Amino acid sequence: MRPLWIIRSRDGREMAEPPRFALAHGAVRHVGEAVAVAIAETLEQALDAAERLDVDYGMLPAVTEARAAIAPGAPLLHGEAPGNVCFRWARGDEAAVRAALQSAAHVTRIDLVNNRLIARRSSRAP
Question: Could you tell me which of 62, 70, 85 has the C-alpha nearest to residue 14?
Answer without folding.
Answer: 85
